Amino acid sequence: MTKMAVIGFGLIGGSMALSWKQARLVDEVIACGHREESLKLAKEMGAADSWTTSIPEAVKDADIVVVAVPVQAMEKVFSDLADYLKPDAVVTDVGSTRMTVIEAARKGLKEKFCQYAPGHPIAGGELPGVAYATKDLFNDKWVISTPTDEMDPEKVKFIEDAWTKAGAKIKVMSPELHDAIFASVSHLPHVLAYALVDMISKEKYAKEKLGMAGAGFRDFTRIAASSPAMWRDICLSNRTAISKELKRYRQGLEELQEAIENSDAQKLEACFENAMKNRRGLVFSASKQDLGKDDGRSKSH
């Protein structure tokens, strides 16, 4: 019987438990976290078979350990679970950044780092919490595997194969490429959405402005309803790459502002035309393309 412990039982951890159970990859799931109400809900909705607030209790008999806490909290969790891992257990995670999370695993797991196999599922939703977990969240979605030389290839392959059986698609790339790509296409958009809503909410007539917001504004800012704590940690974890993207974006905005102030219709239309073509073409065919060319490898109940 295969037992999986999920530490941090929110939207992603809960959905992973549901999808892996549905695919019969695991026979038993134990939910672990600090919010008892969420853990009880996880059991009620069938995502978990039991729950505990104790990491040692969750991990001691687990064959698979999933760390699904905010990225800034991962090193402590890795450290807390290391002494209780079974010798043949595999540890994975679902963090949105790679370089700092892998380093956190290296520091926290110490000599047991060889039992770690990283993973980042490219899926989610703007509403956090296990209440919104679904068994099909990862269907036909990318999961990014970022193995390094110190990792056990068999454990890495085990996690990759499991995700595939659960309905996801695997893409292998280096941690560095991962963080550069997702700073651009995931982290930056979240920062911009948060910043826009925050700015307008502090302005005069904010209530009227937000009340009149149409579909365009709602589509653009949908992700600003995501977990602030999670995205705070992601920004701090991938701050170098995100800062580079913000500088490039700021430069682009300044060029657009100059074009508007100078009534430069040609420059404006050229920018909008290029964006339209790429949005209609490349984005919609992304699922058929590679993401890159880099293939570097308590209480208990």
TrEMBL record:
Pathway: Amino-acid biosynthesis; L-tyrosine biosynthesis; (4-hydroxyphenyl)pyruvate from prephenate (NAD(+) route): step 1/1. InterPro entries: 6-PGluconate_DH-like_C_sf, NAD(P)-bd_dom_sf, PDH_C, PDH_N, Preph/Arog_dehydrog, Prephen_DH. SUPFAM superfamilies: 6-phosphogluconate dehydrogenase C-terminal domain-like (SSF48179), NAD(P)-binding Rossmann-fold domains (SSF51735). Belongs to the prephenate/arogenate dehydrogenase family. This is prephenate dehydrogenase. Its EC number is 1.3.1.12. Residues 2-290 form the Prephenate/arogenate dehydrogenase domain. Keywords: Amino-acid biosynthesis, Aromatic amino acid biosynthesis, Coiled coil, NAD, Oxidoreductase, Tyrosine biosynthesis. GO terms for biological process: tyrosine biosynthetic process. It holds the Pfam family PDH_N. It catalyses: prephenate + NAD(+) = 3-(4-hydroxyphenyl)pyruvate + CO2 + NADH. GO terms for molecular function: NAD+ binding; prephenate dehydrogenase (NAD+) activity; prephenate dehydrogenase (NADP+) activity. Residues 239-266 form a coiled coil.
